[in-house]
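Note to self: keep these together.
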Amino acid sequence: MTDEMTPRSAAEGRSLDRVQRVLVSLLITVVVGIHAASLAVYVTFNRAEMARSDVIGLWAMTGLTGLASAVMILMINRRKPYNPLVLLGLLPLAASGLSIFL
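Structure:
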């Protein structure tokens, strides 16, 4: 008897591996990336009611959260964590920084 979940060929195994990596990458994007985006939106729209140091601290947390999610996604997809694509994690930081400091 064979197990239904074991791939029958090497090509099928690679295909299943790719699907699993894509699904986990999407899950990380939704779970961790939403935190970075929501921090960016919160800092952007509530900066008048907060102290300057609080705004800068939350802005930095936006960047760290975005970088962490980008690094996790790259490592799951078998890339080096210092790949130039990691800079995509700084998009929420850059977007909120434009509205905060200009």
